[in-house]
Amino acid sequence: PQKAVRQLIFSLFPYPDRIRLLLTPLALYQKLGLSKFLQSTGLLKRLSPNLAAMETLLPDVTPSCFFDNLPELILAQGEKRYRVGMILGCVQRVFFSGVNAATARVLSANGCEIVIPRSQGCCSALPEHQGETNQAQALARQMIDSFEDTDVDYIIINAAGCGHTLKEYGHILADDPDYAEKAKAFAAKVRDVQEFLSDVGLSAQLHPLQAQPLVTVYQDACHLLHGQKISQQPRQLLQQIPGLILREPLDAALCCGSAGVYNMLQPEIAQELGQMKVNNLINTGATLIASSNPGCSLQIKQSMERQGKFVALMHPMQLLDMSIKGETF
Questions:
Q1: In angstroms, how far is CA 1 from the centroid of its own chain?
Q2: What sequence ranges are listed for the domain Cysteine-rich (predicted)?
Q3: Each residue's pLDDT tens digit, 207-234
């Protein structure tokens, strides 16, 4: 059964168009209450714990899931400081398109002209992390080709797992004579969006998100903290939002249990990790969790639901976007 689940994951998740083919039946499945019914019976968990884990992690299907909502070129607001490429991700572009839209608005507001090639596909993170080398290499080549001749200063990504893999393209394609040098040059331009904005500095004015202090806890994604050594930059950006108070959780480096597709392949251990992570985050007294990776966000939300707890969770780019626009909670 696990072999079949692995095959499903690698045949589906790296291909946004394939995911979208399933959105209509998935939307009906959720709308008719079949999801909650199936979870309440425990039948799927008895048949396949892996499929049950996948089903409980499924985000809500909304109209925005069905199409890409960003143009190929977005102009900088005010003086242009940089020309950057933006990678949309796979699960990210389908289920978290709002995060991508917020990221684009934040970059534009801070003087970036943004290029978003239509031909871009998966970054190859899922197959690379699971040893599916041939698939990972093919997807990496496609990504490099999609940004060829775009003349960008940097290539920006807002999902931690994707960013870690994109920076490894030089290693992934080291033995490919046609792509080895291209891969090194591509990887040298890759920046996590928080890393980039922290380095170049914010030029847009920020406003409070609410009248009272907003107590927030930042969730360290493993692929950012361990894979890319990015920890202080997200915190530095969040602390620039007026009125935002940042709390530190106990054992901040603890994995939430998502770990790419680990929570679908080893759901019981992942569930234990998720419960510990959520307890540590909530015990800070924060009323908002800032999370920089879609897999982590889904895992944390699921773990909160299991414990009957709820704390708002948003990507740091969504918070910066609201602050720039002067929106409040």
A1: 28
A2: 85-167, 217-301
A3: 999 999 999 999 999 999 999 999 999 9
Which domains are present in the chain? 2-64 (no CATH), 73-200 (3.40.50), 214-325 (3.40.50)
Among residues 232, 246, 257, the alpha carbon closest in space to that of 319 is found at: 246
Contact 258, 295 (CB under 8 A): yes
Longest dimension (CA), the chain: 58
Torsion of CA 213, 236, 69, 296, to 10 degrees: -90
Q: Tell me, rounded to whole angstroms, the distance of Cα 73 from its chain centroid.
A: 21
Residues in the chain: 329
CA–CA separation, 144 vs 182, rounded Å? 7
Distance CA 108, CA 156 (A): 12
Closest of 229, 233, 218, 237 to residue 293, by C-alpha: 218
Residue type at 155 in one-letter notation: I
pTM of the model: 0.93
pLDDT band at 1 (very low <50, low <70, confident <90, very high): low
Cβ atoms of 71 and 142 within 8 Å: the answer is no
